[in-house]
Amino acid sequence: MKSIYNQLVKSVFLLGLVFSGIALLDAQNSQSKAAQITVSGYVREKASGEMMGGVRIGTANNSEYTTTNNYGFYSYTMSAGKQQYLYFLMSGFFGDSILIEGDKDVDVNMALQVIERMDAVEISVKKSTIADKAEMSKIDIPIQQVKDIPALLGEKDVLKVIQLLPGVQKGGEGQSGIYVRGGGPDQNLIVLDEATVYNANHLFGFFSLFNGDALRSVELVKGGFPSRYGGRLSSVIEMNMKEGNLNKYQGEFGIGLISSRGVFEGPIKKGKGSFMVSGRRTYADILAQPIIMAATGGSNAGYYFYDMNMKANYIITDKDKVYVSGYFGRDKFYFADKSNNQLFKTSFGWGNQTLTTRWNHQFNKKTFANTSLIYSHYDLDISLNSKQGGTVEFQLGYKSLIDDYGLKFDVDWLPKNNHKVRYGFSSIGHQFSPSATVVKLGPNQPVSKKAEVIHTFESGIYIEDQIKYGRFNLYPGFRFSHYFVEGKQWFNPEPRVSVGYQLKQDLAVKASFATMNQYIHLLSNTGIGLPTDLWIPATNNVKPMRSTQGAIGLAKDFKKGVSISLEAYYKKMQRVITYKEGASFILQGDMFDPTVPVSSKSWESQVTSGQGWSRGLELFVQKKFGKFSGWIGYTLSWTELQFDSVNNGLKYFAKYDRRHDISIVGIYRLSKRFTISATWVYGTGNAITSPNGIVPINGLIPSAYPMVWDIYGGNGSTTIDYGKRNSFRMEPYHRLDVGLQFSKPRKRGIETVELSCYNAYNHANPFFYYGGYNADNTQRVLKKVTIFPMIPTITYSFKFK
Predict the structure, then answer these.
(1) SS3 label, residue 40
(2) Which of 37, 63, 261, 428 could serve as a FRET partner for 606 with CA atoms 20 to 30 Å apart?
(3) What are phi and psi of 725, to 5 degrees?
(4) Angle at 424 between CA 420 and CA 428, to 5 degrees
């Protein structure tokens, strides 16, 4: 293992040295040519001083252009000895330009001003640019749209906004779980400032843990994956926190029905460094505790969640900058009852922690590098205690956790305006404790069992190239991934490619292909994203997952910032896993007998491996900026699974297979003070397993219907026939949300009051079904449970100047 790892490290650094040498030679050659010069620098947002990614830079008489990277760096090659204006353009910002003359390379830093008058956006933004890029299946979501869209109980939720995009299915009523192009929630790589987030939910899945006040950008990639991404099959959700205002101190706070939030930012040293701190906490537990204790005679129960985001950055030199960012959040449910000299207590908590340290370095005018040290932690903790007169009668503890320690190195090399190369490597050490159980029965019978910790190592090297040649836009890439666990190694090549051909300046046909490998699994027997879902690594017995995905599509740009894309895709997934019938996440073995060992890998005997297929068609019409903005998304799709030991080995539709899914989002700014917003969603009902009827226990049950249950506890009279897996469709889901924001300038800032209504026409969407009897108790019927009727909400926020 050590020799292979050493060879891998040598290969990575050799690759880096080769490309760095080429970059240096290219820079020297460029300087020796009197015909060309290189203009490089950074682009910031004028008011806050934050770096801006995606800014388009070019000259008026040249079709070639470049864009800034995520850290605001750009490099542009142009003719020497001529007077030319270099333009800087970005949707939602006033464009700017600078006159370049002379025959020497020059550094130019630029600051762009955001457009506050919404009517000016229609004139300033000439067009979007999806037609002149090779990338497809990628969507950027403006943070302001996230804040404007009405939400459940007024909690602005990034993941719920992502659920409104084509190709993305939501988990269930009100939940934040997402299913992208047929993949499960574990197949989404959710990244916050380069750190992986494992459980992205608060409140048992009803809210996500990402506070929109702390975010600068959100991007969804669901196909045609760039080679720098790896480790998941279905999507990448990349989020970056705000850097903090470099010029002045400012803040914002908000009060809602269930939580309060706040953010504060400002310079560490003006023009050199800045910071940002944000926090959010629910307070229902604090308000409800006195009522619960008074009503129950002393019992106490509650639930709360909190999260905190922090980030700081500092400019060391003109070519060096450092960042430190972190997230810390937790959910906790608790209950305590004391009566008749007996105390019963239980708690249920889970949380995430991330920490990222980054160093940016500019080697020369064409080469930019970033090095990151990353830590990510997730844990689940369940406890149950019972005491009689101070003596322990029963004690149960369950804990599961993950710790990641990572290193990343990425290089951007820009040899020409129409040629961009990115390469690098990543290495992650995973430490899994899939489950740990502690049991104590009485004061004299302690039992402690802890599952073995599993150490794994995951790494990858990659290179990707963006080339524009005439009407063609090419985006080839290659990733080579490596995984080590229990003395076993996997080496997997992952080719990627995206191609675009411009039929016209504003119309293009595109295609993409990507191979992905995933070395971590999520076991779930609830299907609703509860934290009891168990993250486990690939092992010798449970192989890594693999997928191949191809897509083809059209992209069209219109005036006033409107764009349309139409994509068809096909995805094959291999070695996906699920629980066998009747299995769960609880450890195997006799937990009450200390002589019986508990294996950390007992879950391996409870799972089965299979395959999946997903195909579909997606339509997306988007307008990002202007007095009226929003989008329309439509998805037509099929998703099927097959496991040898489930459903008699027959194919079946996945739970979140939805034939039709529609979302309409509209945001209209009536004036600087008033904004109206609305969303409407429709989706085919989830596929679930439902009872078909009752049959005699001695009757013949077809082999295709293997799941039966003796409702009389084994007395042999009748059984319930459940039929084929997921053969029943829930009712279609549809809902209308509306919102109205009123903003008013004050002496020290701007206050905003928002009125919103979730499920405005009060449709009874199903949460789950159960079997029961009719009103006369003469016939068994299927009954529907709904949880969210029409819910009006009011929130208040104040942004300090």
Answers:
(1) strand
(2) 428
(3) -65, 135
(4) 145
Location of structure tokens 């101070």: 390
Distance CA 580, CA 568 (A): 33
Exposed / middle / buried, residue 473 (Cβ in 10 Å: 0-12, 13-18, 19+): buried
pLDDT above 70 coverage of the chain, percent: 80
How far apart CA 649 and CA 488 sit, in angstroms, is 29
pLDDT in tens, 670-713: 888 899 999 999 999 888 887 776 666 555 444 444 444 443 34
Sorted by sequence, the CB contacts under 8 Å of residue 233 that are 6+ apart come out as: 183, 187, 516, 517, 518, 545, 546, 547, 573
Query: How would you write 632-687 as a 3-class SS string?
Result: EEEEEEEEEEEECCCHHHCCEECCCCCCEEEEEEEEEECCCCEEEEEEEEEECCCE
- Measuring CA to CA, how many Å separate 201 from each of 145, 181, 186, 305? 21, 20, 13, 10
**Residue 673 phi/psi, 5° resolution?**
-100, -30
Closest Cα partner for 726 from 690, 683, 767? 690
Taking the C-alpha atoms of residue 260 and residue 297, their distance in angstroms, rounded to an integer, is 30
This prediction's pTM: 0.85
Paired tokens of 328: 């810390």
Q: How far is CA 706 from CA 393, 713, 723, in A?
A: 41, 18, 7
* Token pair 């961009």 in the structure block, residue: 420
61: nearest Cα among 32, 112, 100, 31 = 100
Q: And the tokens for 138?
A: 């990628």
What is the b/e burial string over 606-618, where b = at least 16 CB atoms within 10 angstroms of the residue's CB?
A: bbbbbbbbbbbeb
Q: How many CA atoms lie within 13 A of 557 on its CB side?
A: 20
Interval 279-300: pLDDT, tens: 999 887 776 667 666 666 667 7
**Euclidean distance between CA atoms 121 and 118, whole angstroms:** 5
What tokens appear for 258 in the block? 């269930």
Amino acid at 714: G
- The CA distance from 100 to 77, in Å, is 11
Residues in a beta bridge with 792: 757
Question: Is-contact 667 148, C-beta < 8 A?
Answer: yes
Task: Give the torsion sign (CA, 179, 183, 184, 188).
Answer: negative
CA 741 centroid distance within chain: 27
Q: Give the helix ranges, DSSP H, for 114-222.
A: 118-124, 143-148, 158-162
Residues with Cβ < 8 Å from 699, sequence gap 6 or more? Answer: none
